[in-house]
Design goal:
The complex is a heterodimer.
Chain A lengths: L2 H24 L7 H19 L10 H16 L4 H17 L1
Helix pairs in contact in A: 3-4
Chain B lengths: L4 H29 L3 H10 L3 H12 L4 H12 L1 H10 L7 H7 L5 H8 L8 H25 L5 H7 L2 H14 L3 H19 L5 H37 L1
Helix pairs in contact in B: 1-3, 1-8, 2-8, 3-4, 5-7, 11-12
Classes of the chains: A mainly alpha, B mainly alpha.
Amino acid sequence: MGPVYWWMILGMAVATYLPRMIPLTFLDGKELPPIVSGVLRNIPFAVLGALIFPAILHIQDNVLFGVIGAVTAFILSFIGLDVMFVVIGTIAVLAVYSLF
Amino acid sequence: MNTTFSQGVKAGTSIAIGYFPVALTFGLLAKTTGLSIFEATAMSLLVYAGASQYMALSLIATGVAPWLIVMNTFIVNIRHFLMTASLSENVAPAPKWMKAIYAFGITDESFSVLSTQKGGKIATAFTFGVALIAYSSWVVFTAVGHVIGANLPQFLQEAMSVALYAMFIGLLVPSMKGNRKVVLLAVIGAGIHCALYYSNLLSTGWSILVATLGSAVLVEFLYVKANKNVDRWTTERKADQ
């Protein structure tokens, strides 16, 4: 790969950093209208829904694989396990499933 | 409540586990695409964005111009404007330069861990802990993947592909309990994303953005409207008495 790829990596770095940095540093301490801050407080849960589905169904070609993973993770966290054990438990269940 | 750096490292460990197979595979794919170990590791070190890095590899392989790859990276990451704007409402006061540093460590995953913390503003030390453990995993395992290749046994490689999603579920479910607004936000966010995904209307970066914003705005308006009705109802009742 030539030097052009180093420029590309730097460009990608800037294109990734700006959306992360600008709101955090420039909205710092600003009073936003209640409706805007209400919407912003909703973002975490809306984004989690959108990050999980449909992607989890397509982690392998077999959709059932993702369904089993989703159901396992849901049950493990519903019974109150810590996130770390939800992750490890779900991996363990799928490891057993893909062995058979 | 979590406030210290080491509590942050602990909370970020699930991200580190989740990044392990993804970074390993990225390292291997980067090698097969023709990137040197320095280029591959530098990309993880400087860019630190899984989806964009994978996309860059496939675009390099198909001979797309580098500046288009940069444009594409920006589009994929526009959703982070939304996440860091939301986070800015929730983090403890800190000097701007310090926020500018930990902003580098905000990914879908670290954002999810940070923004689902309960009780008060998120402490700066905690944020650094979460960001650092996740980032280290991403960078180190990119390099390892390039050197040794993704040599995990097939069944483990497959099973570990669920890790990040299991983490997202593990973060979401406790907040959903007894909170109908959270359930609604997640279900509508997922619903819009599924609709956009299966209809092929938008690329992934855009569709996550649209689904998130759509759900957050829709639910907020529903609740503002419902609260107004409740307000009117209570004032009318008071007037009656």
